[in-house]
Amino acid sequence: MGKPVFNRTNEKIEWAKYTWNPVVGCKNGCVYCYARDIANRFYGTFEPTFYPERLEAPKNTPISKSEEIGEHSVFVCSMADLFGEWVPDEWIEKVLEVVRERKDWNYLFLTKNPSRLVGIDWPANAWVGTTVDIQARVRPAIEAFSQIKATVKFVSVEPFMEEITFGEDLGVFDWVIIGGRSKNSLMAEGQPEWRWVQRLLVEVWKADCLIYFKPNLTVRPREYPLEGYGIDHKVVRSAELKKVEK
Known about the structure:
Layout: E1 7-8, E2 18-20, E3 23-24, H1 35-42, E4 49-50, H2 57-60, E5 73-76, H3 89-101, E6 106-111, E7 126-131, H4 138-145, E8 152-157, E9 175-178, H5 194-207, E10 210-213, H6 233-245
Parallel strand pairs: 2-5, 5-6, 6-7, 7-8, 8-9, 9-10
Antiparallel strand pairs: 1-2, 3-4
């Protein structure tokens, strides 16, 4: 076997061209999980496992001379939840040690357990995020990120499983990602209602956050003139906006 390096992602995501999985496996049990299928195919299990030899990957991966942020950014543990309750502190610390040492890379962390992010002295080259796929995850996310200090704090609303509102609290984040549901062995692809996306988009603008629609989000406004059908789009839109702003 050769020296461990980052994996080049084949997803069309400009902000992270690499993935790094020193830990693989998860116990969140999400029915829509795509990583479980991949892990079962290549590893035969999705039980959380630490691969210490992969800690050498940041050192072994050549750094692009490109100025694109994605060419210098790596998504950490795309095949796991590094901050799940079942993950030993030792695994997390070993990963963070490398992040602090290898300052030439930008590292993105994402978890469904944001409370475990609190209290960590995040290095400047770390972007820290949490997944909010249902409304019940909003309050724990807000409470945790109100206490977290990081260069970039983001929330990933992917998959968008139901209508979600943050209200004025969305301002604890710098960046909001919205995506659809990818296909796996248990579920078909899925898209949120445009009304859900519209409402969240208004909140993002009001909170002055940055917004990113992932390529798998296919819902878009599809307005077109209906002259002669007696439909006043201004009246309809005004009514919809009032609903969104409530």
